[in-house]
Amino acid sequence: MDISEARGYHGHTIADRATKVDLEKKEFPVTKTLGVVWIVQEDKFSFSFVSPSDEMVLTKRNVLKKTASIYDPSGFLTPFVVRAKILMQEAWMEAFGWDEELPDRFKMEWKRWFEELGELGAVRISRCLKEDKKLRDVTIHTFSDASEKAYAAASYIRHEYEDGTVSTRLVAAKSKLAPLKVMSIPRLELMGALTGLRLTLKICAALELPRNKATFWVDSVNVGFWVQGQSRNFKPFVSHRVGEIHDESSPDQWRYVPTKLNPADQGTRGASVQELIKDDCWWYGPSFLKIREGTRGRVSPTSTTGTQPTTTR
Hints:
Elements: E1 30-33, E2 36-39, E3 44-47, H1 60-68, H2 78-93, H3 104-115, E4 125-126, E5 135-146, E6 150-161, E7 166-177, H4 185-207, E8 214-218, H5 221-228, H6 236-248, E9 254-256, H7 264-269, H8 273-278, H9 280-284
Helix pairs in contact: 1-2, 2-3, 4-6
């Protein structure tokens, strides 16, 4: 069976990785590129990374080199990788030299993280974003969140089929570390919301979906208040970012989600590989995405308890 013209994830050719599959032998190849593995028989992606040897000296240079070798362009492993980003920033703040051996407290955290690299082979991600059914509607749902250490966004595609069923899949995710300069949580959550918006625009362009098919979910009352307001009423930091949000989306597209149902929370705090594997909310989004449209809440300038948001601008 010649599959040289077959297409892979998001339309990229795979001719350079596998050209023929002999179905009679019932042996399917497993192709690997930069640590990303395509398991043909399951038609799923996985990861293959080797933990560093015990002889490796844990310096800033060495841990950065190993961390940078994690190839995850779609951000599927964001909750796991953000742990390393946070550790690297903490080491940077301590002003260690590039080739200076890290203190024991850092070594323990790095060794624990490196030991989990071998467990990434248990991760399974469906290559196809939809099921083989007749479609009724397709929408994108992006969640964003922030902590004092990082902010993140995760985007999901929701397919509604003519038989009434619904499927959801994680499309992409992205996290960034909080700036070294102290910044309020509401402002960090606004930066997370903007990251989610930019990620969504790229996804919509790649999948050829109109922007009005996107919905943005935040658990911050402040961000909801800002988005529903007028950018000129806020101080420059908030005004500029809210202005971009208004330019690229409509306030009606922004909705509120409780923190416990927000999958982006994992991308700001981190998770072990085993926690990540078992986290259905991360891979498929919160269960309410499978509920019909029109029954979900919108972002309100007041919280669910009726109190006003903080006055941080």
